[in-house]
Amino acid sequence: MMERIHITDVAPRDGLQNQAVPVSTAQKLALVERLVAAGVNSVEITSFVSPKAVPQMADAAELLPQVLDRFGALRSSVLVPNLKGLERAHAAGAREIAVVLSATETMNRKNINMGLDEATAVSEQTLQAALALGLRTRAYVAVAFDCPFEGETPLERVIALSRRMAEAGAHEVVIADTIGAASPGMVKERLNALTQAMAADQLAVHFHDTRGMGAANAWAALEAGIRRFDASVGGIGGCPFAPGAAGNLATEDLVLLAERSGFSTGVSLPGLLQAIDLAQDVLQRPLGGRSMAWLRRQQAHARDGAKGATTR
Ligand code: COA
Ligand code: ZN
Q1: Known catalytic residue: 239?
Q2: Among the bound ligands, the one closest to the CA of 98
Q3: Would the pLDDT of 310 be above 80?
Q4: Residue 309 confidence (pLDDT)
Q5: pLDDT tens digits, 89-102
Q6: Mean pLDDT across the stretch 262-285?
Q7: 114 in ligand 1 pocket by Cβ < 6 Å?
Q8: What's the rounded mean pLDDT across residues 19-33?
Q9: Are the beta carbons of 78 and 89 closer than 8 angstroms?
């Protein structure tokens, strides 16, 4: 049997948080619907953050209950930066939350207006409170490779913070290349060290494709034993507070890479193309990862083939 990898599509949160075009709650729901139809079983739906900081996520309390109502079996995670975010998420029915801790002082200040020590303590408290509520938990360790403000992030600090998040009860620690600066050699070195410090099954990775290395980095992570991946359909995404960040590793690139290399994902590429069609209509621009031109040609061949069959 093929080995399974687990994908969390973060398009509705990481993908949309920085988009200039306002996206309605109904459009976000429609995007989640297409992802579910494509076989995605874990989605990061939204974030309960300050609407002043991220206006695009202001409808979190309206969106989440509708998602939970419509897609009961879906793993629906939401990002919360503090206890207030957890409170709001819990009131909206959240079953899974993610805290976000950056591994450098400056990135925490820019992102959540806290220093590293305060952000670590707040993340721990938020995780513990979420566990007490019976929620499933993830903890992002952001800028785990390079920081846009401080350069290369010390590996020992990434390991120490990851362990603290796991000890505070994070079910999954997400090692994030927030600005897409990692390369496969660095991914290999860091993940080999992290899997010495904690169980590979407790770790997930979150890559951005700024330098065209998202898929290569995903392969390095697979080789290091990681089986949990974040990705964003169409490659949309990026943190508004991290200068230079581009879109996430595209879900379609990850699925293609994994399935062609002997792993199963449960996700259908034609289904993802339907989700991308919808996202393109909403964002009014062409989307798609590195494999997009080839995937569209395959789609056109399949369509022509089907037409041929019906006219014959
Ligand atoms: N959701 C909604 N509102 C929140 C909130 C949350 N999770 N946390 C705090 N607030 C509100 C406070 O109630 C207060 O409101 P008021 O001005 O009406 O009184 C206001 O925000 C300021 O509160 P304060 O605790 O001083 O927060 P801050 O200004 O230092 O901002 C964060 C801290 C974390 C709320 C803010 O930086 C943030 O939301 N960051 C999100 C960053 C993000 O999403 N990044 C991308 C993903 S990694
Ligand atoms: Zn991201």
Answers
A1: yes
A2: 1
A3: no
A4: 60
A5: 999 999 999 999 99
A6: 97
A7: no
A8: 97
A9: yes
CB of 239 closer than 6 A to ligand 1? yes
Q: Measure the CA–CA gap between 237 and 307, rounded to whole angstroms.
A: 36
Distance 187 CA to ligand 1 centre (A): 32
Atom 34 of ligand 1: nearest residue by CA position:
112
User: 103 C-alpha vs ligand 2 centroid, how far in Å?
Assistant: 14
Q: Which atom of ligand 1 is nearest to the CA of 85?
A: 7
Question: Which residue range is the domain that position 77 belongs to?
Answer: 3-311
Of 22, 90, 84, the C-alpha closest to 57 is: 22
pLDDT at 312 over 60: no
Q: What is the Cα–Cα distance from 15 to 266, expressed in whole angstroms?
A: 21
Residue 211: both structure tokens together: 């330098």
Strands 203-207 and 172-177: parallel
Count of structural domains, the chain: 1
pLDDT at 240: 86
Q: How far are the Cα atoms of 35, 152, 240, 259, 294 from residue 297, in angstroms, in the given order?
A: 21, 40, 33, 18, 5
Q: Which atom of ligand 1 is nearest to the CA of 140?
A: 48
**CA 121 to ligand 1 centroid distance, Å:** 16
Round the average pLDDT of the chain to a whole number and report it: 96
CATH number at residue 24: 3.20.20.70
Residue 311 has pLDDT above 70, yes or no: no
Distance of CA 171 to the CA centre of its chain: 16
Ligand 2 centre and the CA of 125: distance in Å? 23
Of 141, 175, 179, 239, the active-site residue reads: 239
Residue 27, class by beta-carbon neighbours within 10 Å (0-12 exposed, 13-18 middle, 19+ buried)? middle
State the ligand closest to the CA atom of 53. 1
